Model the fold of this input.
Amino acid sequence: MHQNGAADVDVTSLCLAVRCHVRARRHRFPSRASSMANSPTPGTHTHQEDDDRDASGAARALTVGSLNPKVVALADHHLAGRVARRAQNMQEDLESNPASHPFNEIIYCNHSNPQSQGQQPNKFFREVLALCEYPHLLDRSQTSFLFSSDAIARAQDILGLIPGRSTGGYSHCQGIEGLRDAIADGIASRDGLPSYADDIFLTDGAAAPGTLNDTGNDFLPLITVGPLITYSMVLRGATLVPYYLDESKGWRVNISDLKKQLDGARSKGIAVRGLVVVNPGNPTGQVLSEENQCEIVELCKNEGLVLLADEVYQENIYTDQKKFNSFKKVAGSIGHGEGDISLVSFHSVSNGYYGECGRRGGYMEVTGFSSEVRKEVYKVASLSPCSNISGQILMSLVMNPPKVGDESYTSYRAERDGILSSLSRCAEAMVSTFNSLEGMSCSKAEGAISLFPSVRLPPQAISAAEAMNTEPDAFYALRLLESTGIVVVPGSVFGQVPGTWHFRCTILPQEEKIPLIISRFKAFHEAFMEEFRS
Done:
């Protein structure tokens, strides 16, 4: 429990940024020889010199040169890169002058933010949250006419778990115990295996545990993978040893190739500690088969790897041929208990059909670790204030939605199924379009919320990109944006097999916009290929 009066801020990012500041200041004065070698031509000065000094000419306390170099190195690859920044500028152009571009809106197919695209929040979830945020509503007679009976009952139960019956206070650093109990019950119901509140850490979204990320702890992320996962690890000092999924086989994990990559890294003295798997995949949209998951579990067991399972899209499945199976369930199905494999499973309210990105709720379930390691994980959790209480509540609701017989069940299922059916139709239409275009191919969307089509760019387009010092897929994405207003993410942001080019395109725009997106995209791609045809 946090009982100190610490300021209500998260200093982690600032500390990571300035970690090397003192070290940099110690070496601010190089030798005379090196100073002369690196000094500008007499009579000139650089913009960096201007940036390093304040208005009075005094040296600034903090400059780019004294920042943690890991932070600076990430800047060029941040999601808010050239394409996103240009899209924002164009959005501002259209707001001030609607005729400034050959289209009247920017269509964001680049981010995982459903409700910003018009998706409606789930009624039951929001009713419970509203009652928990303002408990006095429970004392009013009109409330029974405005809110469903099961939402009222759930809110009363949840408020009884919260000290002071207020969402404005801190909780235990792992999260409110009763909410963790509810989440554990939901996990147990999903997997058919026991789950315990003590294994669950409620978080502001899905975040990697800091105890596993530091210098000397290196990871195998299955590429292609969301950059926030890999960047957070690099920022904490980990080294990434990427392994590429097999696009020709629906983004399957080839275990023999993965083993070769692991052995190769270890032969170079890299101590690989863990394997990062995203299932369903982001940005690739695949759902791993249970057979493939079993192979991954066995590899981690035999090689002593921590399995970090990002399972935030577990309810977004669009195929009857596959279903979501958690890695915890798969490990148990082949006879492995907690003593056999170390597993950290992540889930979040931001992703999936719920799309509650702004609520910042999530959890990690930590199993298969020694008591000593668990103490260290707890220590790291206790260094920061708890995750936000509204996110904790919402995470418990996601894992325990209305059941048959509850007043809200019918409307809840209708909302859920309507969203998932619409996403499936959008994905199918866009995959069909991509596969019909020259030089493009796209695997079927089995789950999650994005597609990752491959584009075989003409040599002249690649040369044009190189002349602009731009990755070819970023060049393509920028041209797409300028011509159509459609925003996608270059595949180079996520990682891809060298010599191949992709882009990430979400299926989140409202379904009525999909025909417009398809029409604009086809016209652009055909013109682009013709322009750069050899």
